[in-house]
Amino acid sequence: MTDDYLARIGNLIRDARKHRGWTQTQLADVLGTSQSAVNRIEKGHQNLTLEMLARIGEALDSEIVSLGGGPVHLRVIGGRELSGSIDVKSSKNAGVALLCASLLNKGRTTLRKVARIEEVNRLLEVLNSIGVKTTWLNDAGDLEIVPPEHLDLSAMDAEAARRTRSIIMFLGPLLHREDTFQLPYAGGCDLGTRTVEPHMAALRPFGLDIKATGGEYHAMVNRAIAPAKPIVLTERGDTVTENAIMAAARYDGVTVIRNASSNYMVQDLCFYLDLLGVKIDGVGSTTLTVHGKAEIDVDVDYAPSEDPIEAMSLLTAAIVTGSEITIRRAPVEFLEIELALLEEMGLDYSRSEEYLAENGRTRLVDLTTRPSTLHAPIDKIHPMPFPGLNIDNLPFFAVIAASATGQTLIHDWVYENRAIYLTDLNKLGGRVKLLDPHRVMVEGPTHWSGAEIMCPPALRPAVVTLIAMMAAKGTSVLRSVYVINRGYEDLATRLNSLGAQIETFRDI
User: Fold this and answer.
1) Which intervals hold domain HTH cro/C1-type (predicted)?
2) Residue 303 above 80 pLDDT?
3) Are residues 333 and 385 in the same domain?
4) Which residue range(s) make up the domain with 32?
5) Residue 65: inside a domain, yes or no?
6) pLDDT tens-digit profile of 118-171?
């Protein structure tokens, strides 16, 4: 948009706001932004995406500034080399866990640099609906959370809850606040008890019992039941471990959790709980000993660490486009296996000395990539629980392998049917063969070419498709990208800052 257009749109927004009788602060609260940001928009000093214009139009109930509803798409002009440097944003998965964990605390929680993504927005809608006051403090993404004396669970925004899988992590905190409660099925996935069973196994020792009927989980808590022995998780899942930790945090006693995930978001949760006075031994290992507190009432300030999956996304974009960029603030301890594998494949890069994240615990580095000629790895690529290759980073190796010489077997043994979405790379010129629901054979190198593709419904394969489009000659269109916005903040804009050419648009 030109400065002239921005000024004219800003005037329309200002007039529509005043017609509604709102202050800039009131509009900012509805949009989840700051008064200063609204002021810049109205003065024509702020670039606007069509998505933001649509949100403003909806908030002001004004057709003048609304450019139409419907899904958001991306138009990609590919074949462009990237350059420059970029900071990794805070962890999406840590952020949503900490929002859930704030329900353990009767005091004020301030979280620093929270990722402004759709998953976070949905959780904030749920929290606000049950009486929790949440306030964005500034443009940096600092977020203040103040719980009420009593939660109004009957007023829960069920539509927002069903659009986030993270709602399942309300179980651990709520079982200490309510004797009975209901939660909508998580993630819009009507799978009943099977969806929640690993969580139930972790939470039954605290007296939680759940019946799944009528599109809801009906929870009942028996206060006479308490952990009598170590809790052994049959599945070393991240959210399952987090639920068990949050249940143990408010249990007035010591809980031992075995086969716990030691992944990045679990560690951030433990560091936050430490500030609340909940001592946890064994952080970073698979055995956690939680010294719980029956009451937690602390005003606390915490900065979740940076997101290793976003760091891998940016690293992949650099590799596939043959670019030299610097990725700052990458959490190296959660990328070490990935980096070692990329070195084996021939990646030329350098890294800075390590330094600490704002939480004072997580180790960060700056990574600088250089154009490299890659070859297929000797063995198959498969994920493992931390400290192995992260399951969420596995799909990125499909597009990396497609850019390397030789055949690469990728084995996604964790998720049912996620591997099938990687075959969308074939529409862009890739050679990806689906061997079974969990395995694909990728042959490279690939001469990428533009295409129009419906966005895969899985987050990481969706971003993999976008990255391939950045490498493809010509123009590509990725349709209905809500799933990307669920997990990444302003990804297209940030890639554009490195030299990509990605345009957000709607069908008007």
Assistant:
1) 13-67
2) yes
3) yes
4) 2-60
5) no
6) 889 899 999 999 999 999 999 889 999 999 999 999 999 988 888 888 888 999
